[in-house]
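Archive transcription. Copying these from loose printouts into the bound notebook so they stop getting lost. Printout 1 of 2:
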Amino acid sequence: MSFRVDKQSIDDLGIFGRIREQSVYGVYNKTVTHGGSLILEDMFRYPLSEEDKINERGSIISYFQTMGISFPFKSELFDNVEFYLGNTDSRTRLSVYENTLERRFKTALGSDTEYEMIHKGVLSMTEILCNLDRFLKDIESKGVDPSYRKDLDAMKEILSIKEFSPCLKETSFKKFPYAKVAEYDQEFRYDLREKLKLLLSYIYSMDVYISVAGVSAERGFTRAKALPAGTNRLEMKDVYHPLLKNPIANTINVDEKSNMIFLTGANMAGKSTFMKTFSIAVYLAHMGFPVPAAEISFSVQNGMFTTINLPDNMNMGYSHFYAEVMRVKKVAESIGSSKNLIVVFDELFRGTNVKDAYDATVAVSEAFAKNRNCMFIISTHIIEAGETLRERCDNINFLNLPTVMDKGIPRYTYRLAEGITSDRHGMIIINNEGILDILKKRR
């Protein structure tokens, strides 16, 4: 089962982004092979929602990180092999009886390009098989984590196929005689092609695990511990945003008695960044990936909905407020049909007047808070709504991101504090920038 997440949430969090290298996916994508990058992308698109699978993937990545294992193959080998195995045209099948004088003459002249491509593919496939055989024997001699045993045994079983035995004895991969190429080609492209495709998929997954393990070791990420669904617990210690150069870490705890966080703070205080930080950490944790935090443990959830950068829907004639209303409706329907969701709303109902925004924020937040099997973070500038909710609900944790005034200049700590802030510095910022003075001079 997959962890449910929609396009709005993926876009909010910059999971892929317009520039892949500057996305969360880009942080982890140090894969060597194209096949590995595709598997990694698939993992990002479909986080997990089963405790055992999340912890198993986390164990595999931790194993490769602890062992300091490097990917033992050259990337060009896989480019050659994918092209080679993709050509199953029977007209290109080699025969040991067709090593004619004409063909040898063409080969000597370098004009038999079709044969040379097959030859190159056979050499590359053989080198992969030999390198893999040595690699598996090496890591097995050092001890294999039980979480990776299934994959390792599956690869060993394929390598043990008797037809591969001659290939595994090869020591040079520069050139094979025609008869050997024809023999190996028959096995690789026709008789055992599906077995080799399966083997490649295991190697590509290994590429992902080693890539992610390397990123985790280099950047000091930590393994997330998945807890059983339904307990509704989340503990993050020193969590930070993976794309920031000098991030400020925060610690946060959520449980059934305080499953809603009501977040206040002035403009530029860091509310949106914190909500993205929180949501990205939850997302990565459900992938079984190392998280930018000192510690993290969490109850497995069924999905997550974020509303941080909600655009107007001009094609459907929606104003920003109506787009917000429709988003809240979608989330409400999802909560009704699928329990154990994480819901994040940044500046709820910012698209309407203050009175309506206050009434709607109080009503919706109070209704959401009654779903104690879910987790919520709701931010707002309307601090009065927080005071009302404090009187009505006993399961809301009121947090804020404070601003410190330094000689009339706001300084942002970006660190969570208890309570509801009264910071309002919009006019101070406008005055500090001299906007009103500029306008007065133009009269």
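Printout 2 of 2:
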Amino acid sequence: MIYFDNAATTWPKPPEVIAATAEAMRSAGGNPGRGSHPLADAAAEIVYACREAAGRFFGAAPERVVFTSGATASLNVAIRGLIPAGGHVLYDNLCHNAVRRPLLAMQREGRIRAEQFDASGEEREILTSFSEKIRPETAAAVVTHASNICSKVLPIRKIGGLCRMHGIPLIVDAAQSAGVIPIDMQRDGIAALAVPGHKGLCGPQGVGLLILGEGVVPRPLLIGGAGIRSLDEEMPEEIPERLEAGTLPLPAIAGLLAGIRWVGAQGIETIRRHESALAKCFAGGLGKCCTVFGPADGSVVGFTHRRLTPAAIGSMLAEEGICVRTGFHCAPDAHRTLGTGKDGCVRVSFSAFNTEEEVGRILKILCRLD
């Protein structure tokens, strides 16, 4: 089995992640923040250690690290919890449905007006498009850091500078960049960062992070037990408890902590160079029958074949034991922007565990199609 679907979820996981997840179920089975007995204390220690590790990793205070079920949940909390009624919102045309659908739902509800800027060009063109669409009533910007169809990376730090200049909160979708591209909340001017645990950070599925800038307090989407202020009718004002109703996924958090530590030990730049080298090798080896969309110098390569549909190629590769993703990848606006066509594209996405030999094998199979 060769796995090239890492933009969906990374696999395999580091052995440390698997061990930490299992150990949490064995020895820290209490409910963190819900008791003062040894098992609850052990669970709370894991939770806070993960907050600290994530805070250091992304340039934020531990108390500003909120656990969610994943990047989609984090984006929903940020978008629905931070954008005021009547506001104008900017978002890019490479976005995932986790951004597009909440924004368009709020627009249909008459709560906001959402407007896209063009993220398909060079850095100067992206910044010009973004700047030209800022209005006095612009209440937030929701920006994709890295595309999930190609290796396009948006200039988040410069967009963050523009947002600071205009007093606009910046919400960043880091689903494809967290753990692969350096991010610093303060340096990059980010108000809310949505992070999956199971992709670049190599943690288990079922846990994600919403990391908030200082003073950023979204309205909660989920309401219930928070472990503090139990006599109050409303959720507490304190972050992170305000946004963490219910029981946290402790085993997944333990695995995420191990994943963050593993990525830190390998080094983001080392991982990035490795994945980029594989992407360039793969894109450069595709035959003339294939069209590559967008940059192919990061972690993701999207392509189509002149004769065969993406679905047909995906099925053929699966029969050979190679896992890729085909179709529209929950990002219809990005496919329209890149011009992939009515069937979407084949997506090959790399992780730290992929090898040049694996790239050689998929290229050998694809070259038969020329």
